[in-house]
């Protein structure tokens, strides 16, 4: 899905490509910092204490989510400054890209890098040793992981739109809603290997976030109906 979003909505505009790459870089830096803190915490703790290690894993996931959203806010501030600079340099006093478009492209950048790392981890697990499900575990691990990666890519795109809209209009409850949704989806991963318990709620949240982002972007039921009916 990230590749399709890139090809059809971003690839033709050099400015959007720059914003996409910068967004992916911000997500990558947030992952690096959260991984470093989690690694230090694990090394400083007792590796034989399984309960403690599980608690550290939960802490690492939650901290990573909060750090990602903090970097999303920093990226918004950076893009806001960039818009002011573009307006100052333009002849007509208008920015060549709107904050809504920046929010979408930045969200795709976050989702693209998130999905890339999810797939890398998945491919690393597929190298072995052993066979999936050989000890009676679910054989749907790779399939459900692919679906979870897809939903995270779309969610990051929608979260980018919601988050930037909240920052732009000082609606802090929208920002809080994004953080809560992100924490919820990440927390649902601990339901695995009960994949229904993680996939179904995640996709329901994705549908809700998609509808919300669509409305905030100026969409309407009439426009959606005309699009589905292929009417101009």
From TrEMBL:
The chain crosses the membrane at residues 17-41, 56-75, 102-120, 140-163, 175-196, 202-221. Its main location: membrane. Belongs to the APH-1 family. PANTHER family: GAMMA-SECRETASE SUBUNIT APH-1. Component of the gamma-secretase complex. GO terms for cellular component: gamma-secretase complex. The gene is Aph1a. This is Gamma-secretase subunit APH-1.
């Amino acid at each position: 899905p990230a590749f399709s979003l890139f090809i059809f909505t971003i690839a033709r505009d050099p400015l959007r490509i720059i914003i996409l790459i910068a967004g992916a870089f911000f997500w990558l830096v947030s992952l690096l910092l959260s991984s470093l803190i989690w690694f230090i915490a694990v090394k400083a703790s007792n590796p034989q204490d399984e309960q403690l290690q599980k608690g550290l894993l939960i802490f690492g996931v939650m901290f990573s989510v909060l750090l990602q959203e903090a970097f999303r806010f920093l990226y918004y501030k950076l893009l806001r400054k960039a818009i002011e600079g573009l307006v100052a340099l333009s002849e007509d006093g208008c920015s060549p890209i709107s904050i809504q478009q920046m929010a979408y492209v930045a969200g795709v950048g976050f989702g693209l890098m998130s999905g890339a790392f999810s797939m890398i981890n998945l491919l690393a697990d597929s190298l072995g040793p052993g066979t999936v499900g050989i000890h009676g575990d679910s054989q749907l691990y790779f399939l459900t992981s692919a679906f979870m990666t897809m939903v995270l890519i779309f969610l990051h795109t929608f979260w980018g739109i919601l988050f930037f809209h909240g920052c732009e209009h000082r609606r802090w409850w929208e920002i809080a809603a994004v953080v809560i949704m992100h924490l919820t989806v990440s927390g649902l991963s601990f339901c695995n290997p009960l994949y229904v318990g993680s996939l179904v709620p995640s996709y329901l949240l994705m549908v809700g976030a998609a509808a919300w982002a669509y409305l905030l972007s100026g969409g309407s039921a009439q426009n959606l109906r005309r699009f589905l009916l292929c009417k101009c």
